[in-house]
Design brief:
single chain; about 250 residues; alpha/beta; TIM Barrel; 8-stranded parallel barrel; 10 helices; 9 strands; about 30% helix
């Protein structure tokens, strides 16, 4: 039996509006092992789940997340822009709103799945984001199910200093020489690697290190199959969790 975990990327981004309660619910119904999502801070310091620093691409509003209060952001639809997806239902999707991290945790806690929270701090620092994320995760007693990731290494290192038991992982698009040394010295739980680093054989060995490799974003069936066969891949992150789960079952 294949034990590779399947995480839904921003929910089920290939078929549902990304980073929405609708998309997360869909991923949960499919039976994902975990969900990957992104957090940013509003003008009034609320944690919201959205990938881009600007709301233009995924909502019918425009401007920066950080320039709106939560109440203002809640006026915009996070579903209406996704009419190109086959499951698009205007009446239902137009009502979707940018969720808070709290709303997402309320949804997933009964399922006890894993949660990968990506701190979107590589453009704006979002002062205080670490304390806020830790507080909400602890409020739901969910810390043991969460791994925090970021491209911006200082953000997760800071979080680890605040909460030594937190699991942190570095998002990487390029090869590290001697990755296990980074993992040990920075107390990383894992590395979240771009799929090409694995598919091109760059990380074909864990070099004896004790860390998890999660691979993103894997949407091609053949690539899913290749990665499912690798014994050093702990998790595959995909926009199409239904396909990945189905391929894993077939192995």
């Amino acid at each position: 039996m294949n034990h590779t975990k399947i995480f839904g990327h921003r929910g089920s981004m290939g078929t549902m509006p990304e980073n929405t309660l609708l998309g997360f619910r869909h991923a949960l119904d499919l039976g994902v092992d975990g969900i990957e999502l992104d957090v940013q801070l509003t003008k009034d310091g609320e944690l919201v789940v959205i990938h881009d620093e600007q709301i233009d691409r995924t909502t019918d509003g425009s401007g920066y997340v950080k320039d709106y209060t939560l109440a203002q952001l809640k006026q915009f639809s996070t579903g209406i822009k996704f009419s190109h997806l086959a499951l698009f239902d205007k009446n239902v999707w137009s009502k979707e709103r940018i969720p808070t991290l709290e709303e997402v945790l309320e949804l997933i806690v009964p399922y006890q799945i894993e949660l990968n929270i990506e701190l979107k701090t590589n453009i704006f620092p979002y002062d205080g984001i670490q304390e806020k994320v830790i507080a909400i995760v602890n409020q739901f007693d969910y810390a043991d199910k969460v791994v925090y990731s970021s491209f911006h290494l200082p953000s997760i290192v800071k979080l680890k200093q605040m909460e030594p038991s937190a699991k942190i992982a570095w998002l990487l698009e390029y090869e590290l020489s001697r990755p296990s040394e980074y993992v040990k010295s920075l107390y990383l739980e894992g590395l979240h690697l771009h799929k090409d680093l694995l598919l091109n054989g760059v990380y074909d060995k864990k070099s004896g290190a004790d860390f998890n490799i999660r691979v993103w974003t894997v949407n091609n069936g053949k690539e899913m199959e290749q990665l499912l066969k690798m014994n050093n891949v702990e998790t595959i992150v995909t926009d199409f969790p239904r396909e990945a789960i189905s391929l894993r079952t077939d192995q």
